[in-house]
Amino acid sequence: MAAAGVGGFEVVVWGARGTLPGCGPNQVAFGTETCCVEMRVGGRRLIFDAGTGIVTLGREMAAEEVRDIDIFFSHAHYDHIMGLPFFVPFYKPGTRVSVSLGHMLDGRLAGELVADLMRAPFLPIGPKIFQAEIEYMTFKPGDVLEPGPGIAVKTARLNHPNGAVGFRVEYGGRAAAYVTDTEHVPGQTDKAVLSLFRNADVVFYDTSYTEAEMAKFKGFGHSSWEEGVRLAKAANTKRLVLFHHSHMRDDDALAAIEREAKAAFAGAVVGRTGMRFALEPVPEPARPRREAERVR
């Protein structure tokens, strides 16, 4: 895949599953990889989460000789970080990778978390083996990050065990949000989540469960596709991507959910590996003729 040019805004899904990669022949139609979404924004490459989907993405980035990369963690549960040690650009001299997180409730920094992930006896290598220039960034939910000119990454705390952060990327008058993992309270609207959804062109939302399953999994930190639809309608969201699929859900079940979600909200779609969204910049309003003549 060629990189988006300066001024572009393209979103690519590299993994949409939660908890575990797809297991068996009945979990392949929507991709087998866990959470990883890339946003190619204004000539920069932003990555949200490092599930197993980041492995294939890293291979492509290495082949393209991408030298400047920003990774943002929603949180550090296994399905969101298990691909990180296998991200090829980490091992490429001359590459700069920024790793940012803001969900930690115990005060640990981003670099400490990566070192804790890559340690014996769980892995035989540690982050000292990386040959790229790594910059570790720790932020607080609510901060607005600026990874590049004209790019705003807004953040908000989510309702999830051990903490999690949702993101909203704004550029060129367009917006894409990555909102996983979070649990809604029935009958209440999470205002922080709603703000991430507001007028967005595309939103990735945690839809691990159906509404009927929520009571059974109360406290697990996940939401439903029905809540996603409610938020999308309330926030005037254009496209809702059902994300973080339950590891118990097979392809037929996901296809059935997609049909139900589309009937409730035409802009709904089940996330799958390889899915792409090209967000065209909002054209500037035409200037009045007299003003244009004065400029000339």
End-to-end separation in angstroms reads: 40 Å
Count of domain modules: 1
Largest sheet: 7 strands, mixed
The proportion of residues forming helix, as a percent range, comes to: 10-25%
Described by the principal axes of the CA atoms, the overall outline is: globular
Strand order of the largest sheet: 6-5-4-3-2-1-14
Mean pLDDT: 93
Helix segment count? Answer: 7
Report the structural category: alpha/beta
CATH topology: Metallo-beta-lactamase, Chain A
**What top-tier CATH class fits best?**
Alpha Beta
What are the low-pLDDT stretches, counting only 5+ consecutive residues below 50?
A: 1-5
CATH architecture: 4-Layer Sandwich
> β content, as a range?
25-35%
Please outline what is shown here:
Keywords: Hydrolase. The chain is built from 7 helices and 14 strands.
Produce the secondary structure layout:
Blueprint (H helix, E strand, L loop, with lengths): L8 E7 L20 E6 L2 E5 L4 H12 L3 E6 L4 H4 L14 E6 L8 H8 L15 E6 L5 E5 L2 E8 L5 E8 L2 E6 L11 H7 L4 E5 L18 H11 L4 E4 L7 H14 L3 E3 L5 E3 L10 H7 L1
Helix pairs in contact: 4-5
